[in-house]
Amino acid sequence: MSANRLGEFLRARRVAAKPAPDPPQQRRRTPGLRREEVAARAAISADYYTRLEQGRERHPSARVLDALATALELSTAEAAYLHGLVTPLPTTQPAADDVPNEFLLLVMRSWTLGPAYIVNHRSDVLAANVAAHQLFEHFEISDNILRMLFLDPAARRLWADWDVLTRHLVSGIRRMIGPTTDIDPATTLFIADVSRRSPEFAALWNSHEMGVYDRKEKKFHHEDLGEIELDFELLTTIDSQAQYLVLHRTPRRTG
C-alpha cells in the first residue's frame, strides 16, 4: 500500500471535480481539473500543488488545506478527512476493537423491529441478532459486510441495489478508517486483500469518495422472504467509536 495518502486523495478528487466549460476551440483531454486549475483556485503555486500530489511536500498548513477543500469543492466529510491525512498520527498501534461494546450489545439484543448487528471499522460482524442471521443465511460470507458484498458470489443476486450500496459502504468505511491504515497492519492487509480480489472494490476505494447519503435503504431479493426493503441507521458510543450498531426497521414487502 502506498504511503502517499495525501497525494492519492488530492489526485482522486481533482480527477472527479467538474471543471468550467472550455472554449469551443479547446478540447479537454483529461477528466476533472488540471493541477494548475486547482492551484489557481486555492491561491497557491502550481509547483507547490504538484509537490503535494507527488508526496514531496507532506505538511501543508491548515489554511492551505481549507483552500484546497474549497478549490476541490469537498464535502464536510471529505474536508475533515483531508485534514486528518496531515494531522500527526499516534505512534502506538490502535488496540483491536473486536469485543462488542456492552451497551451496543444490549440495544442489539432488545431490537425487535428488524435485523441488527454490530460491526467494527473494517465491517467485521462482531455480533448479530436472529433477524440478521436469517437475512444473511444464504450468503457464503457473513463475517464481514464488505467482503460479503464484493467477494460472495450471491451478493449481486441477493442485493437488489448492489451498485448503490457498495458505493455507500466503501465511502463510509473510508471515513471510518481514515488515515489509520498507516498504523494498523490488520486494516492495511484487509484493504490490500479485497483490492486484489475485487477490481470493483479497488476502483471505488481509489476514488476516495466519501459521500454522505440522506436516505439509507437496502433492497433484497431474499429466497425465503421475497422482495424486501430495509431502512437502516448506524449508532456508536463515546467509548467504542470504532464500533457501529446497524439497526434495520421491519422489512416492508414490495412484491
Brief overview:
It contains 12 helices and 6 strands. The protein has helices at residues 5-16, 35-42, 46-54, 62-71, 76-86, 102-110, 130-135, 145-151, 155-158, 162-177, 185-197, 199-206, and strands at 116-120, 125-128, 217-222, 226-235, 243-248, 252-253.
Task: Walk me through what this model shows.
- This protein is α+β, with helices and mostly antiparallel strands and 255 residues long.
- It folds into two domains: 5-86, lambda repressor-like DNA-binding domains (434 Repressor (Amino-terminal Domain), Orthogonal Bundle); 102-253, Beta-Lactamase.
- 44% of the residues lie in helices and 13% in strands.
- It has twelve helices and six strands.
- Strands 1, 2, 3, 4, 5 and 6 form a six-stranded antiparallel beta sheet that branches.
- A hairpin with a 7-residue loop joins strand 4 (226-235) and strand 5.
- Helix 2 (35-42) crosses helix 4, helix 4 (62-71) runs antiparallel to helix 5 and helix 11 crosses helix 12 (199-206).
- The longest helix has 16 residues, at 162-177.
- It starts with a helix and ends with a strand.
- The relative contact order is 0.13.
Brief descriptors of the model:
2 domains, 6 strands, 434 Repressor (Amino-terminal Domain), alpha+beta, 6-stranded antiparallel β-sheet, elongated, single chain, Beta-Lactamase, 12 helices, 255 residues
Topology overview:
Elements: H1 5-16, H2 35-42, H3 46-54, H4 62-71, H5 76-86, H6 102-110, E1 116-120, E2 125-128, H7 130-135, H8 145-151, H9 155-158, H10 162-177, H11 185-197, H12 199-206, E3 217-222, E4 226-235, E5 243-248, E6 252-253
Antiparallel strand pairs: 1-2, 1-5, 3-4, 4-5, 4-6
Helix pairs in contact: 2-3, 2-4, 4-5, 11-12
